[in-house]
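Researcher: Go.
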Amino acid sequence: MNTSLSLSVELEDAIASSDVRRRATMLRRMADLFAGSGDLTPQQTSLFDGVMTRLLAEVESSARVQLSEYLAECPREARRTIRSLALDDLIEVARPMLTRSEQLEQRSLEEAAATKSQAHLLALSSRKTIPEPVTEILVDRGDRDVALCVAANPGARFSAFGFASLVLRSSGDEELAVAVWIRSDVPRRHLLKLFSDASLIVKDRLCKEDPAKGKVIEKVVTQAVDRLQARTRQLAPEFVSASMRVSLLEEAGRLDEDALCRFAGSKQFSETVLALSSICDVPAGVVERALVEDKSEQILVLAKAAGLNWDTTKALLVLKTSRETRDDLEGLFETFLRLKPQTARKAVRFYQLRERALAKN
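Model: Structure:
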């Protein structure tokens, strides 16, 4: 009790004093007691947390930097203190907490990502683990250095939307595209999008350098991407599993429009590709490219040729991209109604012949 009373008096004296060094000394003393004490009750922890938070507002930046470095590895929770340090405008203060503290709550990570400087975002991008909501903000707000850092961080977790955003940012950025490509957790549909965008960039560059060879270059690049896509189909566990599932439905005579609509509505990309490929009798690569490269008209053609209704077709269009607006869908619905089945079947026949010709070369 006497010790607690003595500390309380010293604390009040330190805060009341105009001596900044005395306050800093008191802050470090409280941090030492907090980190070195035995088991603390929740009430004691809260008391330490409140005292350190109060002192933080009364010390210079150098003392805040020292405390941040000291507490960054501390396994004990001092939520208000850690949050205050992590959200400090000075990156020198915030960096240790943003990069290393495992006690920093996710909501504080999200707030730092949403409101702080690019230097703060870069620090966040190098954390040992980064949850999905935080990576989404980093990819959205971060500059190129932040995007590269978070893409190369194996501890960063991405949602489907986060991966889609990251792949979109990779278009035209070779280094970022490579960082995404070598990740082991990228869903296959996003890798296909990466291939597609990269192939378009390569074709554009080569054609500009030698326009006379444009058609040859386009054919060579398209064939290379087709082979790469086919190889990823053979190696991807998700595609192997999807192939078995679709094959079983087909053998049981249950691979129909209802099954396709369920696959598309559930965002099961590989199953949707294989089901539509089987129903339309076109190679899986044709369907994949249509879905990945945002070829809405080609999806309409495949759907109309297969006699699919609008609900199923809409599910395919929404699977193709998460950015379809109501106006887009209304316009596509009008096109779908105008498209004649015989015209669609002729187009599908062309796809089949083209794929066979490419396969022979």
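Model: The longest helix spans residues 188-209.
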